[in-house]
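Quick illustration, no need to memorize.
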Amino acid sequence: MKTPITLLFVVASIVSFSLHAQEHAPSSDMCWKDAALWTIQAASPDSLNYQELSNRVREMTDCNHLYGKNDCAYSGTALLYEQLIEGRFVKFLFKRHPEMGKRFVAEDAARLR
């Protein structure tokens, strides 16, 4: 009984990975266009939710792996969107837990890391 379940899990994982790879394999041209557009759009990211920001990081990371060996456009765009996510997360934490924000700043200033 365990063997068919294990086999089913392995096959499902392979199929899932294959579908994901096919779905997220943008062309070189699309990578360039997205990187250029998204760099401009990063100036006003409030219209994008977390999942959209995260998808852009993933696509730019994929583009970098596929086409960006000697170019920093894709990794730079991915980093830009990672920073937007990080900034949004920090604002969320400080807003919901201001005492933790103050404590973080105080401990960091005291080098208590």
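The mean pLDDT is 83.
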